[in-house]
Amino acid sequence: MLRNADIVELVALRRALHRRPEVSGAEVETARTIAAALSELAPSRLVRGLGGHGVAAVFDSGAPGPTVMFRAELDALPIPERPHVAWVSEIAGVSHVCGHDGHMAMLMGLGRLIAQRPVARGRVVLMFQPAEETGEGARAVTRDPGFAALAPDYAFAIHGLPGLPFGTVGMRPGLMNCASVGVKIRLLGKTAHAAEPEAGRSPMRALASLVPRLEALGPGGALDGDFRLVTLTHLGVGEPTFGIAPGEGVLHATLRAARDESLAALEDELRAQVGEAAQAAGLEVEISEHDRFAASINDPEATAIARAAMEALGMIHHAQGVPMRASEDFGLFGRTAKAAMLCLGVGEEAPALHNPDYDFPDDLIPLGAHLFERIARDLLG
């Protein structure tokens, strides 16, 4: 059980991390702070620089048994925070309004509990992962040669979720978070004088035709196995002048699907539609992909283990709020481990994630830490 002094120090850590947020791939100071705090717990092994700035602490019992990984995220968002708490971000335009500061504090709480009372068998790995917000972090970590020695048999993560009653857990076996990818489309033609637009090749009509065609590929609807959604996030054409007929157009879209294979099929259909529109208008096409996330699928056994832990702790759990359209790159760990993502309720009236006034509630830190610990004890003693 976390002592009062532990909770006070974990809250202080959470608020210190909140003041100094760093965006994906730039988590230098955050990783240094986490590594220093982990060093005080005397883990069997401390690994730095995983997949960029990732940090992992290994608590090895020395006895045979499974490796159980618990993950938190290091990165923050390029979103200005509305000043509403004393520990407001000190970095202009960057904030922890997704709650990763709280996730790190919960995981550090687990570290304290394991350091105070080591597990009887197997290993506990605390994984502080970089670049979750871009979908690049888990991929970089799992591809890092150093990850092979840490590869888990089970993996668990907690994400705070506004809209759920405080302290309750939303979870289910199967789909938890959709697969997604950002697509940037450039249509390249030729500019012309605005008095003679026929002398150029404008992407205007091609872009206009693509808007309804692409949206029709992913109309949304019920979040079942057939779910697909195309969200157009940016559209631009030409320069803000009056004398030039445009020669270039740009369209950004986010594609989502309930399954990785559905997302791949959606991408193929989008490329076909774009190619057809470009060919008809005599335009060249450039397509680039960004922020790719695999679907996050909860393994039935890992979900059952988490459910038993919650019931032992008297925590209410349900399928409210899940699965989610939003993506989470934790799904990649589930390709090689039995994994489960758990959504811990922040409160029904709490500001939404990525809102400029979201702040992770400190009172959730011991709840998350003790849930993680119960899972670890149930598996490793």
UniProtKB/TrEMBL annotation:
The keyword Metal-binding appears for this protein: yes
Binding positions for Mn(2+) per the UniProt entry: 98, 100, 133, 159, 354
Details of cofactor binding: The Mn(2+) ion enhances activity.
Co-factor requirement: Mn(2+)
SUPFAM superfamilies: Bacterial exopeptidase dimerisation domain, Zn-dependent exopeptidases
Superkingdom of the organism of origin: Bacteria
Record field: transmembrane: none
Keywords: Hydrolase, Manganese, Metal-binding
Pfam families the UniProt entry points to: M20_dimer (PF07687), Peptidase_M20 (PF01546)
Domain Peptidase M20 dimerisation: 180-278
NCBIfam families per UniProt: amidohydrolases
Name the UniProt record assigns to this protein: Amidohydrolase
Organism, scientific name: Thioclava atlantica
Lineage, top ranks: Bacteria, Pseudomonadati, Pseudomonadota, Alphaproteobacteria, Rhodobacterales
